[in-house]
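User: Predict structure, ligand adenosine monophosphate.
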Amino acid sequence: METLLMNAQEPGCAEAAAKIIREGGLVAIPTETVYGLGANGLDPEAVSKIFIAKGRPNDNPLILHIADASQIDDLCHDVPESAYRLAERFWPGPLTMVLPAKSCVPQETTAGLSTVAVRCPDSPVTREIIRLAGVPLAAPSANLSGKPSTTTAGHVYHDHAGKIPMIVDGGPCRVGVESTIVDLTEKRPRLLRPGGITPQQLIAVLGDLVVDKAVTAQIDKDAVVKAPGMKYRHYAPACQVVIVSGTSRKAAECIRTLYKPGDRVLCFEEELSLFEGLAPLSYGKAADLNSLSAGLFAALRELDDPAVHKVYARCPEGDGIAYAIQNRLKKAAAFQVIDPEDIL
Ligand code: AMP
Ligand code: MG
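Assistant: Predicted complex:
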């Protein structure tokens, strides 16, 4: 199949994409978080094409993307008042809410759960596609399952050229890491995945937040968890990734003692000179955390190369968007962190 790569600004782009969606096909869509692989989220057959294209395990549910908050009630029941407050404050934007699913949402989308994840993305063309298609768009990240997420149309083309009918190019993703997921189906709101909306921002609206253990620790692959996606090895290049903590100077000293030819260093722009000769790759500035989240997946994809043996990665400390970056990098590293004090 030929893959049409169309710029979001081109006249007729949203109409062409919506037509494919209505006919049960797949379209890769830009969002502010990462590129998604979209299908009619109410059509089991269309949804199953997403799982096949990505090689995604069937027990990993999808997020339904909607054009505005009024669509929540079409898809969810017993919606708590807090959901509308979050939507009012953060939509369109990088926040996904898990709510009880109405029966119109197929099992293929929810992976058999009684809940469904919904989000209104901050991409005008994608919201226009959803409006024109007249259905919510089920869309996971457009990468092949297990690989780092797609943050440019070029990444999607690399993974799916010739296998999906259309990619909408909306430029590089602004946030660069997947949406924050909050579960509102229990007594207390629960953070299932950190993202562009920070825990502090959620607490400001909700007054309370429990952090699921899948956010901060490795989950057994046979475990029954709230966010099934969290138990799989995620976001990682093919080779081993290890995080090296500590100051720039200590980390550089430590990595120099461990480094072998074929290894790479993933670091902050400010550290490039410290890692001279160790094939360093910068993913953004430590002084600008948004540049790190926006650049992380492009860098991890570049390191997904059979010639790379091992990656030593530097990770920002602190909260806010740094918390989401830590989560993605730690998952890519299977939670392996080296403290230079233990090596030097
Ligand atoms: P992706 O779009 O590839 O980032 O994956 C979507 C994420 O949303 C996965 O980690 C899922 O586990 C999570 N998710 C989707 N639906 C639900 C749900 N009903 N309950 C909990 N987590 C969900
Ligand atoms: Mg994903």
